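Researcher: We're teaching a course module on how sequence relates to structure. For the next exercise, students receive a sequence and then see the predicted structure as tokens, so they can try to spot secondary structure elements on their own. Here is the exercise chain.
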Amino acid sequence: MAGTGLFEEIKEEDVFKYYADGEWKKSSSGKSVNILNPATRQIQYKVQACTQEEVNKIFESAKAAQKLWAKVPLWKRAEALHKAAALLKEHKAPIAEALVKEVAKPAKDAVSEVVRSGDLISYTAEEGVRILSEGKFLVSDSFPGNERNKLCLSSKIPLGVVLAIPPFNYPVNLAVSKIAPALIAGNSVVLKPPTQGAVAGLHMIHCFHLAGFPKGLLSCVTGKGSEIGDFLTMHPGVNCISFTGGDTGIAISKKAGMVPLQMELGGKDACIVLEDADLDLAAANIVKGGFSYSGQRCTAVKVVLAMESIADELVRKVNAKIAKLTVGSPEDDCDITAVVSESSANFIEGLVKDAKEKGATFCQEYRREGNLIWPLLIDHVRPDIRLAWEEPFGPVLPVIRISTVEEGIHHCNANNFALQGCVFTRDINKAILISDAMETGTVQINSAPARGPDHFPFQGLRDSGIGSQGITNSINMMTKVKSTVINLPSPSYTMG
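Model: And here is the predicted structure for the students to work with:
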């Protein structure tokens, strides 16, 4: 069970502790934050409500620990990360259990997230050794007017303290995708987990604790965003912010000043289906892409743009697959489980009502019980319907019928979000041309949008983000270039 056995020290009575200076601590606030089970709407866990003073102390420790960690040999940093990865996989059961209860993630998907996270850490250790062991050597006579009397040695050094803020939907995987690159690069990390997903995050942090990382190098602060959110993101001790989430990221970017940012925000991932597409393949990917984890993924298919000539058949095939989806408890590995909160469910319902009022075609009856919303395909969606543009983050998928490919590309490019998109066609030339025309971070050809494999570049344009993720890009982003220039005697002054 979560919080028992090996993980007993991270909890006291019914409240999970926060992690600082290599220890599990209770907040001096004497307050806690409730975490509701999305499926039952009952209190499942409680975590510490940390104070601003405790945050200050965490940053002091993080700064001091980072200075020492940067001097640790690269191979030793990698060794520690490999140990943390092994511990994470070894103790996947209690972490997965927390994911099931906190964010209603189906049990098998919860285990997969933890295992994938261990793999990510190990790969990061290997990639970090490769990238960071290389420098650059420049000579000066390559630039006009210069002799070869200057030598430049260029290398990558850490930024300092990285503030990592992952989202509720992948609170373990998207935490380690920030933590591991930061640590291998020689940074320290302050993790602010999402409230829903905090307990899974604390269990994950305990695996790093057991791996023996130095005190103060990795901290985990829990609490109300209203009390410590801005205080964290605007803290003078922050040297880099890596954030994954929604609109909050835009607010953070406006307040962050000169701090380097890595941000992955929302998406309205468009799926363009051409006349010559394999419709069985397209339908399978639309259902997988649109309804996996109840559509609560930034890379979920969020709008289908189907050519009019094949739209009827495509919708029929998609509906047949939707009918086979199981709906219910995450413990029972159902395909569709409760969305994360009542406010999220209410937002989704608002989008559905707007579509109903404006005459869209409902392929299934809208059904909701608490936070559980049954999968729904909505056809004949027009541009004046909110679902055409807004991200539901739930199991509701709109279909827009298009008469030309250009119409589909225009709709994709007119959205504020530009994370991923996909195109289904048997013509590779068309696929490449459409991919070039789609203004989005990634285009998948004949597959649903997805984040990963975790070493692939992952980025969004416009309101979908800043910078690029993926293991290699994250390591590079969490370092800065340091140059040392050696000035040799001028040739005219040399002996002989």
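Model: If you want an answer key for the exercise: The longest helix spans residues 107-132. The chain has 14 helices and 28 strands.
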